[in-house]
Amino acid sequence: SSDEVSLEQESEDDTHSSHSSLDKQTHHRANTTMHVCWHRNTSVSMLDHSVAVENQLSGYLLRKFKNSNGWQKLWVVFTNFCLFFYKTHQDDYPLASLPLLGYIASMPTDTDHIHKDYVFKLQFKSHVYFFRAESEYTFERWMEVIKSAASSPGRLIHLSQKDTWLG
Asked: pLDDT tens digits for 15-24?
C-alpha cells in the first residue's frame, strides 16, 4: 500500500512538472498555432484550401519590434493560412508561426507612427503586427496572398459546409 502511494505521488509529480514546463514552452503557441489553426481550419472549404495551396509564398520580411523602433529580418513562409518565421532561409524549424484566419491586412495609419515604405499591418482583435517588404513588388505579392488567406476563409467561418459552396 505504501508502494502505491509513492508511485501515485511520483506520477503526479511527473505529470505536474512536465505539464508546467510544457505550459512555459508552448503557452503562447498553444493559443496561436495549435489552438487557433485547429479550430479555424474546420471551417475552411476545399475551395479556400485550394486557393491557399496555390498562394504559397516565401521571402524575407522585416518584423517591427513591439516596444521599439527596431526591425528584425526574418525568412517568412506562407502556407496553409499561416505565416512561419525563420531566422534564415536555411533553417529547418520555425522560430514562431502566426495563423492568419480572422486577421485583417491593411496599411498602417498615422496613429501607428510607422514612417517606412512597403509596410503592412496584420490585426486580430488586440494583436497587431507590422511587416516591411524589401520592394514594391514583394510588398504587393505578400499583400495579395495574405489578403486571400485572411479574408476569404474568415467570411465563411460561421457558415455550414453546405453554405460554403453556394457563393
From this structure: 333 333 333 3
